Amino acid sequence: MDTVLGTRVRPEVLPRSVSEGEVILRVQGLRVWYGSTPALRGVSLDIPERRITAVIGPSGCGKSTLVRAINRMNELIPTVRTEGRVLFRGQDLYGPGVDPVEVRVRIGMVFQKPNPFPKSIYENVAFGLRLHRRCGRRELDERVERALRQAALWDEVKDVLHRKNGLELSGGQQQRLCIARALAVEPEVLLLDEPCSALDPTATARIEALMEDLTRDYTLVIVTHNMQQAARVSDFTGFILGGELVEFAPTQQLFTTPRDRRTEEYITGRFG
To answer: Distance between CA atoms of 10 and 27, rounded to whole angstroms?
Structure first.
């Protein structure tokens, strides 16, 4: 996709510790409706490159809608209507001529419940490559291995790549397999929608450690209902309430000195 230069951002959207050059995704005035029901009400925020940005808020506040709007997954729901802009390296992903399939390759997504295909581990990871990229067998093998290594799964499955079905793995392994599947097509951004909610504490710890490792090469946006998790792993956090972005700030600042009373009430457990 071509990059459009010269995009400007309203100064108040950008936290002080994020420089203009660090921003990879810029959400501007994003509004989403499911039929006549509003889900997002003019959300604007800037997502820095190769950092972890967490999105928190009570159930039904619009967290998942936001990340699904970033890579145009919401468009798969017939009743959804979207207004506003999502700029990826300056280009409006909702602009004319932009292929939503290519958007979803460049901005990958991992869902709340692990969803491996009923195929071998190898074919799970190779699925997107076969669909979107022309690869010879040698390149395919290399990319599958690289993605599994990046997802910290290679050593556990390298001897059963073609023999073991992805559905036979443990819950934590399945989620890392889904992460490897997303990484195989080499996205620049990875969206994770409640990636640990179905996992036990041990598997959760492994996914959190993996997320930190992945920021060497990728930008991560994580939706989580677990505020402790957001505080542990993220660099920036946005708090959404009723479809509105109440506050967006460096994580430590948001959790220790929130600017908005509603943020303080939520993180101290007074509601939600």
So the answer is: 11
Distances (CA, A) of 17 to 124, 138, 142, 222, 246: 39, 43, 38, 20, 18
DSSP-derived 3-state class of residue 88: strand
Concatenate the DSSP letters of all residues of 221-240 into one string: EEE-S-HHHHHHH-SEEEEE
Amino acid occupying residue 137:
R
Pairing of strands 236-241, 219-223: unpaired
* Token pair 């556990």: residue: 156
Q: Can you list the domains of the chain with their CATH numbers?
A: 20-267 (3.40.50.300)
The answer to whether 50 touches 235, Cβ cutoff 8 Å, is: no
pLDDT tens readout for residues 43-96: 999 999 999 999 999 999 999 999 999 999 999 999 999 999 999 999 999 999
Concatenating the DSSP letter of every residue in 10-78 gives: -GGGS-TTS-GGGEEEEEEEEEEEETTEEEEEEEEEEEETTSEEEEE-STTSSHHHHHHHHTTGGGGST
Buried b or exposed e, range 64-103, using 16+ CB within 10 angstroms: bbbbbbbbbbbbeeeebebebbbbbbebbbbeeeeeeeeb
Q: Are 85 and 8 in contact (CB under 8 A)?
A: no
Q: Please list, in sequence order, all residues whose beta carbon lies within 8 angstroms of the beta carbon of residue 14, skipping any fewer than 6 positions away.
A: 20, 23, 46
> What is the mean predicted confidence (pLDDT) over 251-256?
96
